[in-house]
Design goal:
The complex is a heterodimer of chains A (324) and B (493).
Chain A (H helix, E strand, L loop, with lengths): L4 H21 L4 H12 L4 E5 L5 H11 L4 E5 L6 H5 E6 L4 E6 L6 E5 L6 H13 L1 E4 L2 E4 L5 E6 L12 H4 L4 E5 L4 H12 L18 H12 L5 H16 L3 E3 L3 H17 L7 H12 L4 E2 L1 H5 L4 H11 L6
Parallel strand pairs in A: 1-8, 1-9, 2-5, 5-8
Antiparallel strand pairs in A: 3-4, 6-7, 10-11
Helix pairs in contact in A: 1-2, 1-3, 2-10, 8-10, 9-10, 10-11, 11-13
Chain B lengths: L14 H15 L1 H21 L4 H26 L7 H6 L9 H5 L8 H9 L5 H44 L10 H4 L7 H37 L1 H14 L2 H14 L4 H5 L2 H13 L34 H37 L16 E2 L2 E2 L9 H10 L3 H18 L11 H11 L2 H20 L5 H15 L9
Antiparallel strand pairs in B: 1-2
Helix pairs in contact in B: 1-9, 2-3, 2-9, 3-6, 3-9, 6-7, 6-9, 7-9, 10-11, 11-13, 15-16, 15-19, 16-18, 16-19, 17-18, 18-19
Classes of the chains: A alpha/beta (324), B mainly alpha (493).
């Protein structure tokens, strides 16, 4: 059933207010905030990549603050074990029973900081949780609280001692966000906000108000699922994904999950923009974050200094937009 | 020299073939050559190393410095071997006492740094030339073959290195302690270090020399013979001598001598021989015959004042330097071609870097093709395919309950108008949002706002199947008229 205009408008205002609150703490990263909210509305997970000190962790903390639900954080390190992530059964000598100690994944928003610092076994445990939305400890399945969203961060430099996520696992993230440097004016505003009357260098998130209940987010996610997607728009998304497989500069194109991600994210983008239907512009708006981690750039293009974003932008200019 | 007695086939050879011949000669001479060189040389080297015990570097230097003296032994054997293929090592060894010492002092002083040593050795040792005569001779020989002679030295030095490294590898493989030769130059001058590796190194170098030095001397010797064959026409001389012997015809013998004397450069030794004056007389007699005295008279047109190239230059006349002018012209032409190529290459390079840095210059909407497209977004946007009074037609469709047709007309009309006014240049990948951004970049705010409203209404209809409310549809038609409808005929613009 299509959404009414009131519902759509309500959703838009709701998203706008959350965005406003997050932007109080994360200054100059509007696009990244929008994309993180889109992932939340589309019930997807995000991988955030950026240089140190650009506010990756702050963004997640601020987002969690607006959200009146559970928030957990795991700092990934080389010695982190799967049980440290999902939990384990422990013997209680007093009762003579095994009791289950749930890991930090039992929360609504989970920050997996520097996910590429843990070995593949631990990464795989988290990625499995992301896929299944449940944890099996000692033979018993435990469902994760809904909504559940993982925001993983990684640093594109400092590859020493890291375990890069394989393509198959990157595919589990709905969007990959890139945090760049803020503009001059934003940086001035941010430094002013941090240093005014404060002793440390921590960006404060205490001015961010909690607006969102977990149930509200679930409602929003259900509304996004009802956003009308015309077959021409789906066709456009599929043509873009298929084109990534035939583009000479890309060594590997996106799979079908790429097309799914594109449409899911576009629906959330349309809802956040106050529309009850998806247009080709919505597809185009989310194409880079939805596809950049699902394609592999050919080595000769990397030597030329091209990255996935520039190749995908060229590709978007070539795929004919739907004509209705 | 009895060149007819040489056991080598004399013919013109390239320097590399001549060097190859030397290796073949060394192989054929075999034990006589290698023993006659290696025994005295190795004995001397052993004695030097024992005398200078504890100073392996100094001993190595003394042995290296003395090597030209032992080259003479090898050349002495080789010089016999070219006339006597069956030379045995005993006879060769016995003959070593007769090795001439001409130029030995020079060879062990300044001559030690002669890079074409084995090539020059026969001049001193076999020809017995010294001083200025030897220098002149060497210069003549060098004119064509010095390059090959120097490269021969370079190649042999590399082979010495290869053999020494091989010996080092062998020692490292077989030695239980894992030791080897001392191959670091610094060790040679480090008195505190262990001596064994250094003496092993000396021994390896001496053994490599025993194998390679005779080859070096032999290759240099055959290069020398080849060069002299070229210079003095030994091959022709031998051919003629054989013909003369076979036919026993005196006239032919004279003719051969004449040809040799006329065609070939005068050999240094031949000029000094008493037979030369007799040959010169015979040549003069031939040249005095009537065949060489024929005169031919002819007439031809010639521009006044133009000298004839065939005229001998008048004594005292300036030297004709016109060839320099021609040369300069050729060089100038070459420089011009080069300059053009350079200019094209520089322009290409600059364009490439500009492209790498800035990309191609973006096409402005004004630069769009003059003829706007006929079909856009699947809609026919030709002006003549649209009704003359588009707003009225749209209102009629709206009244008939066809909002999609009405909005389609408006949208097509707006696109046609924007194309006509140059506000749009649509590419394949452009969506509706891209079109709005293009319009915003070139048209005013009211037109952009209206176009965005129209696109939103059309998008809702096209992608969500939701027609706009009637009031909104009428407002869109009214605003369309304001922005796109042509002014009434006769109205002032």
């Amino acid at each position: 059933m299509p959404l009414s205009e009131e519902q759509v408008d309500q959703a838009r205002r709701f998203v706008a207010s959350v965005r406003e609150q997050v932007a109080l703490a994360v200054i100059g990263q509007g696009r990244v905030i929008d994309e993180a909210l889109v992932a939340l509305i589309a019930a997807g997970h995000v991988l955030i990549e950026g240089l140190p000190g650009l506010g990756k962790t702050l963004l997640v903390r601020a987002l969690a603050r607006t959200f009146d639900g559970g928030f957990g954080r795991i700092q990934f390190t080389p010695d982190l074990m799967p049980a440290d992530v999902v939990g384990h059964a422990i013997y209680d000598p007093a009762t003579g029973q095994f009791s289950t100690r749930k890991g930090p994944v039992f929360t609504n928003l989970l920050l997996a900081d520097e996910i590429n610092r843990a070995p593949a076994k631990t990464q795989a445990a988290l990625l499995e949780v992301m896929q299944e939305a449940q944890v099996t400890i000692d033979g018993t399945s435990h469902a994760l609280p809904a909504p559940f969203m993982v925001l993983a961060t990684q640093n594109p430099i400092e590859q020493e001692g890291t375990y890069p996520l394989p393509e198959a696992q990157l595919d589990r993230f709905l969007l990959k966000l890139r945090i760049g440097y803020p503009s001059h004016a934003d940086e001035v505003a941010m430094i002013g906000a941090v240093t005014r009357g404060r002793a440390g260098d921590q960006l404060a998130v205490d001015q961010v108000r909690a607006l969102v209940k977990p149930q509200a987010v679930q409602t929003l996610q259900q509304m996004a699922a009802q956003v009308v997607t015309d077959v021409a728009v789906v066709d456009y998304a599929v043509r873009i994904v298929r084109q990534t497989r035939d583009t000479p500069g890309l060594a590997a194109g996106a799979g079908s999950r790429g097309g799914l991600a594109l449409v899911r994210a576009a629906r959330a983008w349309a809802l956040a923009a106050g529309r009850g239907h998806v247009t080709p512009d919505d597809i185009k708006a989310v194409a880079l974050p939805a596809l950049r981690h699902r394609v592999r750039v050919a080595p000769e293009q990397e030597i030329e200094g091209r990255d996935a974003d520039s190749l995908l932008s060229d590709l978007l200019g070539q795929v004919p937009a739907p004509r209705q | 020299m009895r060149i007819e007695a040489l056991s080598l086939a004399l013919r013109p050879r390239t320097p590399w073939e001549a060097i190859d011949l030397g290796v073949a000669l060394a192989r054929r001479t075999g034990a006589a050559l290698f023993l006659c060189f290696a025994l005295p040389y190795a004995g001397f080297a052993l004695a030097v190393n024992l005398l200078l015990w504890g100073q392996p570097a100094v001993a190595a230097l003394v042995v290296w410095w003395s090597k030209p003296a032992f080259d003479r032994l090898a050349l002495h054997v080789l010089a016999q071997a070219v006339f006597d293929p069956g030379l045995g090592w005993r006879r060769a060894f016995a003959s070593l006492r007769q090795v001439p010492r001409t130029g030995l002092v020079a060879a062990l002083t300044v001559g030690r740094f002669d890079f074409a040593r084995s090539f020059h050795l026969p001049v001193a040792q076999l020809e017995g030339q010294r001083g200025a005569a030897a220098r002149q001779r060497r210069a003549l020989l060098d004119r064509r073959a010095r390059g090959a002679a120097v490269w021969l030295g370079v190649v042999i030095a590399h082979f010495v290195v290869v053999l020494v490294l091989g010996a080092d590898g062998l020692l490292r493989l077989l030695s239980p302690q894992g030791g080897g030769l001392s191959l670091r130059l610094t060790d040679l001058f480090d008195a505190s270090g262990a001596l064994t590796p250094l003496y092993l190194f000396n021994a390896a170098v001496i053994l490599a020399d025993c194998v390679l030095e005779p080859l070096y001397v032999a290759a240099g010797f055959t290069l020398y013979l080849s060069r002299r064959t070229d210079l003095e026409g030994w091959d022709l001389e031998i051919a003629f001598r054989r013909m003369a012997a076979r036919r026993a015809a005196a006239a032919l013998g004279i003719a051969a001598a004449l040809v040799l004397a006329g065609v070939l450069p005068e050999p240094a030794q031949a000029a000094a021989s008493p037979a030369a004056s007799a040959e010169r007389k015979a040549i003069d007699a031939i040249l005095a015959s009537p065949e060489f005295r024929e005169r031919e008279a002819g007439r031809e047109w010639r521009r006044k004042g133009e000298p004839d190239a065939r005229d001998p230059p008048a004594p005292g006349a300036p030297v004709d330097l016109s060839f320099l002018q021609k040369l300069a012209r050729v060089l100038a032409e070459l420089a011009r071609i080069f300059a053009w190529f350079a200019a094209i290459a520089i322009a290409g390079w600059l364009l490439y870097h500009a492209w790498r840095r800035f990309g191609w210059p973006a096409r402005t909407p004004r630069a769009a093709p003059a003829a706007p497209p006929d079909v856009l977004f699947g809609l026919d946007v030709r002006a003549d395919a649209l009704p003359a009074d588009l707003a009225a037609a749209a209102r009629a469709r709206l009244a008939a309950g066809e909002p999609r047709a009405a909005l389609s007309l408006l949208y097509r009309g707006a696109l046609a108008g924007l194309l006509r006014d140059g506000h749009l240049a649509v590419r394949a990948g452009d969506t509706e949002g891209d079109c709005i951004r293009q319009v915003a970049a070139s048209a005013g705010a009211p037109l952009t706002t209206y176009f965005a409203r129209l696109v939103a209404a059309w998008g809702r209809l096209a992608y969500a199947g939701a027609p706009p409310p009637a009031t909104e549809a009428h407002a869109l038609i009214d605003d369309w008229e304001r922005h796109f409808a042509p002014p009434p005929r006769g109205a002032a613009r």
